[in-house]
């Protein structure tokens, strides 16, 4: 479905853990040009096997292209250091400034950004902050309502900044 709805020259960013990277990469590679695997280095580690495993301080992001579009602003490192979110909005909430960076690298003002696993709508906030349009989908009612509230608050704050 992503192939069907993506514009030619679209960039895709798919977040995943090392546990699923092979399956995701193979599946995406059947439809898109897998360009790179980015590493999001977080400020702290996640949980898991606290005594029998290393503490993960990163998340992988598969970067794909639906064509040959170049990145805005030139080439950046494939390791992105950005502090993990510390809110209760969603268990895997991404930092707004991380998503802002990816959006600015791959789109222009007025472009449309799609997030089909929107969680608490951080992608929408980043899109609004960069003057992009967005479509967000979230199947969990609880997180949809949190996201809807965040969008309303963003618009309210914007109106207050105008006065």
**Shape from CA axes?**
globular
Kindly state the mean pLDDT as a whole number?
A: 93
Tell me the Rg in angstroms: 16 Å
- The main sheet orders its strands as 1-3-2-4
Which quaternary structure do these chains form?
A: single chain
Please render the helix and strand layout as text:
Blueprint: H1 2-5, E1 11-16, H2 21-29, E2 33-41, E3 58-65, E4 79-81, H3 96-106, E5 112-115, H4 122-129, E6 133-136, H5 141-162
Parallel strand pairs: 2-4, 5-6
Antiparallel strand pairs: 1-3, 2-3
Helix pairs in contact: 3-4, 4-5
Descriptive account of the structure:
- This protein has 163 residues and is of the alpha/beta class.
- The chain is 33% helix and 21% strand.
- Strand 5, helix 4 and strand 6 form a beta-alpha-beta unit.
- Helix 3 (96-106) crosses helix 4 (122-129) and helix 4 runs parallel beside helix 5.
- The protein is globular and about 50 Å long.
């Amino acid at each position: 479905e992503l192939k069907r709805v993506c514009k030619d020259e679209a960039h895709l960013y798919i977040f995943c853990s090392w546990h699923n990277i092979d399956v995701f990469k193979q599946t995406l590679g059947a439809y898109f040009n897998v360009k790179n695997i980015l590493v999001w280095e977080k400020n702290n580690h996640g949980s898991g096997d606290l005594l029998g495993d290393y503490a993960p301080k990163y998340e992988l992001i598969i970067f794909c292209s639906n064509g040959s579009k170049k990145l805005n602003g030139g080439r950046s490192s494939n390791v992105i250091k950005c502090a993990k979110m510390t809110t209760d909005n969603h268990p895997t909430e991404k930092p707004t400034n991380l998503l802002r960076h990816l959006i600015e690298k791959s789109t222009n003002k007025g472009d449309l950004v799609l997030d089909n696993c929107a969680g608490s709508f951080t992608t929408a906030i980043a899109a609004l902050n960069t003057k992009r349009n967005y479509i967000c989908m979230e199947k969990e009612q609880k997180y949809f309502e949190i996201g809807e509230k965040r969008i309303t608050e963003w618009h309210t704050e914007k109106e207050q900044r105008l006065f």
